[in-house]
Each structure stands twice: as structure tokens, then as C-alpha cells.
């Protein structure tokens, strides 16, 4: 039992002798000139495994830090500080302080060595408030909903002019289709399936007629283009023959 107590006391003594009190201070600048501006701030190692408070003079101390490699960061509400890596190897020697970038290895060869005690400098201030946006006429017109409304209004204004320039037969077709669709719906609603079926067949025949007319018009246009292209070489050939004949007559 005494031997176990002796081992416990020995382990406590060895751990305390191997521990290190990490010290440093905050370097005030124009961004953060004093402690009142900084406010209550804490310095932590590895997500608050070890921690220490910053005093009014800007100094801080993290006691009883065991040997190992840590990331030192500052928890501040209003200001952002750079993170540094701290390599504690022995309590008799000062720790190795190097610059640290989030996502890089702790033992990176590209890190820059920094002096000890640790010097922390505020880099920029957090801004939690966003100013209210003022009225912007151009921004309002860039809204997709406003653009859709404007296009709809332009179509409504321009529809009467488009209707005036359309063919009367083309204008009658939609009204006839709407009447037929209404007849189909009324017949189906009244239970007259036979007349509704006949109206559906009529609608299909009208649609087929329209498609056949369009195909016929397209075929006629293609034939006219082909005939015009085929006639050009003949005209050129006749003109060449006339020129040759004229040259022969001149030689004679």
C-alpha cells in the first residue's frame, strides 16, 4: 500500500516537473487599442483543453501544459486573431512557436518560426450588423417576377394589334375549337357519350386537316426553291452558248 502511494506521488511530481506555463501577451494596435475595446477574451489550446484569461495589461498565462503539439487560438467576440502552433517538448526549454493555417499539418516545414513569449495581434473586427438596403429602381427591374409581369403586360397591350393583322380564318379556328371542346364537355357531363365521341372525332379530323395543310405548304415551298435552283444552271449555260456563238460570229 505504501508502495502504491509512493508511485502516485512520484507520478505527480514528474508530471508537474514536465509541465510548462505558456505565457504571452496581446500587441495592441489601431484596430484594438486597449483591453476595454477587446473585452473579455480567452486563449485556448486544442479546443479549450488548456485555457487562460487575458488580463487588462494584455498578458495571458496557460498553466500546467504537458509536452505535445497544440494549436493556440483566441476566443474573442469582436476580434479575430491568427492561430499558432505550440510545440512543448520540455519544461526547461522554451516551446517552439510557429505560424499555423487551418487545414495544414502541425509539423509543416513551410511554417514560420515565431518568438516566445507568444505575441498575438488583432487582425480584423467582426461585423455582425448589415445596413438596411436602400430603394434601388434598377434592382427592382432585375427581379424575375417583375420581369415576368412586365412581359405579360406588354403581351396584353400588343395583343389587339396582333389580332388586327391576323387572317380572319385563323381567328375563327380557335373559337370553333373552343366551342367544340365545350360541346364535348357538356355532352360528357349530361351522359351523352355518343355525341361526345363524335365531337372528339371531329376535333381530331380538324387537327389532321391543319397538319396536312401545313405539310402541303411546306412541300410547295421546297419544290419552288428546288425548281429555282435547278433553273439557274440552264440560264448560265444558255448565256455561255450565246457568248461563244457571238465570238465565233466575230471571228468569221
From TrEMBL:
Its main location: membrane. InterPro entries: Beta_sandwich_EMC7, EMC7. Pfam families: EMC7_beta-sandw (PF09430). The chain crosses the membrane at residues 145-163. Residues 224-252 are annotated as: Disordered. GO terms for cellular component: EMC complex. Residues 1-19 form the signal peptide. This is ER membrane protein complex subunit 7 beta-sandwich domain-containing protein. PANTHER family: ER MEMBRANE PROTEIN COMPLEX SUBUNIT 7. It is a single-pass membrane protein. Keywords: Membrane, Signal, Transmembrane, Transmembrane helix. Residues 40-148 form the ER membrane protein complex subunit 7 beta-sandwich domain. It is found in: Membrane. The keyword Signal applies.
Amino acid at each position: 500500500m505504501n508502495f502504491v502511494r509512493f508511485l502516485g506521488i512520484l507520478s505527480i511530481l514528474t508530471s508537474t516537473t514536465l509541465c510548462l506555463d505558456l505565457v504571452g501577451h496581446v500587441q495592441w494596435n489601431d484596430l484594438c487599442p486597449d483591453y476595454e475595446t477587446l473585452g473579455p477574451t480567452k486563449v485556448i489550446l486544442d479546443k479549450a483543453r488548456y485555457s487562460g484569461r487575458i488580463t487588462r495589461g494584455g498578458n495571458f498565462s496557460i498553466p500546467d501544459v504537458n509536452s505535445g503539439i497544440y494549436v493556440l487560438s483566441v476566443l474573442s467576440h469582436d476580434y479575430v486573431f491568427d492561430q499558432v502552433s505550440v510545440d512543448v517538448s520540455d519544461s526547461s526549454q522554451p516551446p517552439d512557436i510557429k505560424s499555423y493555417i487551418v487545414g495544414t499539418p502541425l509539423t509543416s516545414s513551410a511554417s514560420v518560426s515565431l518568438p516566445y513569449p507568444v505575441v498575438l495581434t488583432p487582425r480584423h473586427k467582426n461585423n455582425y450588423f448589415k445596413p438596411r438596403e436602400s430603394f434601388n429602381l434598377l434592382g427592382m427591374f432585375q427581379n424575375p417576377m417583375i420581369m415576368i409581369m412586365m412581359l405579360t403586360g406588354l403581351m396584353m397591350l400588343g395583343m389587339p394589334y396582333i389580332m388586327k393583322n391576323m387572317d380572319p380564318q385563323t381567328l375563327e379556328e380557335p373559337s370553333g375549337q373552343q366551342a367544340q371542346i365545350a360541346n364535348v364537355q357538356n355532352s360528357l357531363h349530361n351522359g351523352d357519350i355518343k355525341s361526345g365521341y363524335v365531337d372528339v372525332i371531329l376535333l381530331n379530323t380538324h387537327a389532321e386537316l391543319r397538319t396536312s395543310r401545313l405539310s402541303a405548304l411546306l412541300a410547295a415551298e421546297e419544290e419552288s426553291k428546288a425548281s429555282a435552283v435547278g433553273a439557274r444552271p440552264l440560264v448560265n449555260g444558255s448565256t455561255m452558248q450565246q457568248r461563244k456563238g457571238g465570238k465565233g460570229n466575230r471571228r468569221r
